Amino acid sequence: xxxxxxxxxxxxxxxxxxxxxxxxxxxxxxxxxxxxxxxxxxxxxxxxxxxxxxxxxxxxxxxxxxxxxxxxxxxxxxxxxxxxxxxxxxxxxxxxxxxxxxxxxxxxxxxxxxxxxxxxxxxxxxxxxxxxxxxxxxxxxxx
Length: 143
What we know:
With about 140 residues, the chain is mainly alpha-helical. It is about 40% helix and about 5% strand. It contains 7 helices and 2 strands. The protein is elongated. The protein has a domain at about 50-135.
């Protein structure tokens, strides 16, 4: 009759003594799996679902006011839909705070907030091709 380990140390000990052949085969199988597939298998063992909630709206536009992301290509929400992001990160759902909700939570009127990284409406007109942190490079801004 086998006993069920009650601590993680007992589980590791039992696993280490369970035979080298099966352990070797298991390691070979693990190394052949992609990182995403390993996460999916591990998740299936420990949770039924993964729901991701982000405490801001999706950042989809670059910022040249001091935050270091130059292009939309660097931003996952800049080029993938929420469904595609879910698939990419292995989540069952993805939710963001709305831009209106974030604005309301700040207690400030929208006119006093820069929300360009969320909605692409910059307080200073900038052509779309010029949008990014490189706009201020070389101007001595922030140095």
